[in-house]
Amino acid sequence: MGNLILSRPLDIKRPYYVQELGVHLYSAEELCYYIFHYVMLIDESFADERLLDFIHQLDQPRLEERILRTQEQGGLYDVLYVILQELRYYSSSDLFQFRRQLEKLSRSSAAERIRAKGDLLFERGQYYAALRAYNQVLEQDSRELADSEYVSRIWQNKAACYARTEHYAEAMDNMKNAWLLTRNPGLAEKMYALNRLMGLDEVPEPVRSVVTDDMLEQFRSNWDKRWQLAAYQGKALEAAALQDKAESERSKAYLELLFRWKEEYRKKQLS
Amino acid sequence: MDELILGIDLCDTHSQISVFSPEKGEPEAILTGESESTSQISTVLCKLKGSDTWLIGYEAYRRALMGEGTMVDKLVKLLYKNGSATIEGTRYSAVELMGHYIEQLLALPRQKYGTDAVRCLAFSLRELNPDLLDRLTLACDACGLSRDKLRFLSHTECFSFFVASRPREIWPNIVVGFDLTDEGLDYYEMHVLRGRRPQVLEARREALEEAFDLDVLDTAVGERMADSILSSCADRLLAKKLISSVFLTGDGFLNVTTWAPEFLRRLCNKRKVFEGQHLFADGAAIQAYDSTREESLFPYVCICEGRLSSSISLYAVRDGRNEQLTLASAGSNWYEARASAEFILDDVQTLELMITPFATQRVEVIPISLAELPARPNKATRVQVIISFASENHVTARVVDKGFGELFPASGMVIRKDFLIS
User: Fold this and answer.
1) What ipTM was reported for this prediction?
2) How many CA atoms lie within 13 A of A22 on its CB side?
3) Interchain contact A34–B (C-beta under 8 A)
4) pTM: predicted TM-score of the whole model, two decimal places
5) CATH of B310-420, one of 3.40.50.510, 2.60.34.10, 2.30.42.10, 3.50.50.60
6) Predicted confidence band at A235 (pLDDT cuts at 50, 70, 90)?
7) Which residues, in sequence order, are bridge partners of residue A24?
8) Which residues are CB-neighbours of B191 under 8 A, at least 6 positions away?
9) Do B317 and A89 touch (CB under 8 A)?
10) Contact B119, B3 (CB under 8 A)
11) How far is A2 from chain B (nearest CA, A)?
């Protein structure tokens, strides 16, 4: 049995903008949710004047004071904890869980934190921001980067970001880098799929030697199945649903959908 | 008097208007002549030919009979039906006609007290119908009356307020009222529920089937018959009840002492009996005045027609504590009791509204399934719960998906549930 939490709508004139997600936060609840679920995205620049101004608009003078005091005495994670504690949006068990997450984060390396940030951004579809994070990981001087398997995963993630933004050639280059590090045969099918997206029914040069005819046949069959399935998923499904609308409303609905997709795309470009 | 505090008893045949005087502490009826009976202003409207002049009441009748204008009557019924009337080739909606009528009606106190400003205007109506009230509000808009200054009350509420404003010795026990007009014969009964804090005034109205046409009073035989009908009503309604006072109102009871000896003999049996012509208008004016005060003169919960007999509440977490949040309180006017609040769902699949009747305190739970709302992570859905009423019994609850800011945009989905409360 859950709870209803009374929410007081406030007239916030200057919402807090989260650049990584491309969204504005308008309430104390949204701020808490962002901190609780996206703590990986938050860095030292978070507790700035914009945040204090936002808290001021939320009419939380005590929290303002506590943030300033905590900033002097502690670090970013203490500030985040104080915000959640003071706004009381999450229960004490949630706060305990959050505290453990913070401890785990503070023990992890910079590279690991940035990679987690990249993964989170990828999950939210912020592919350009995720790419930036993965590039940052590769620039770190961290012990993880001595592990070729780890670095290969980063290149694969970068390839996935490029593929999702339809930059297939760049995706292939990154995938080749991943392949060169581990020569993992599992990557061969992914590279074949990228080639198919570019209109080529063949495996690319670096993996050609490890792919047998039977494997290629299997890749083809898997690709065909996925291609057919794609017509019933995601955006294709959204567009197909509009066919049920009356003819008079259909073209307007298509335009609205297209407009929304464009907005989403722009938002992702900017983030 | 800087601003008028008004009560209008708006009926289909006659209307009355009372002005509350804060200095005297009581309402005063507007009379168009010398006698008490002139407080009744016919609910008719006459537009003079070739002019934009509108008249009401006796003058409207007179000029129409002289052929100087076109008359429209039964304005309340016309408004209820959302009808129209065509005068000199122009079609006027019922709302427009009611607007003209109210404007002319308001001219009477404005002229008498030398001020146009209205602080509060309470309408007393025989029955509160939501469509009628909406159209009456529109008619008042046309008169330039601000909506926040309007109140709509049932006759039963006005009766209760009128009685409660009298000295306490008049109503230690049950108080009853009879309203005899061309529109019917209504019986009112009010009593105080003992042992409750705050005290509860419970009142009800009964439209009696024994109603008769007032024309029967034009003959001696008819008068005797009317006396006999009313006497049998009194026998039936007042038997075995501890009644302190009886109020008689309506133009049917004008000169009641001359034609209803048997009826009065039954009433005046160790009870105080009063006769007056503007009880509902006075009650409305008293309520209008009370609504302008910071602290009410009537520390009672009134349960009657037009008022909610049950409270509607739900449990919600406020500032970290789980508490019962009342969305609509028993005793409040249903027309004004619309409530709305926003909540965030924390692992909630069903919203539970609790209905608590004032009389019994036995809670009934109305579940509203939220399964249709878009799937989102926990604590990432804000809903607006709106409670509105189509009458004192008919409740509509709507749950509107408000999303969660830009993180999870609102779908605008509305889950609606209609239910009845006792």
Assistant:
1) 0.77
2) 17
3) yes
4) 0.73
5) 2.60.34.10
6) confident
7) A17
8) B173, B174, B175, B201, B202, B203
9) no
10) yes
11) 4
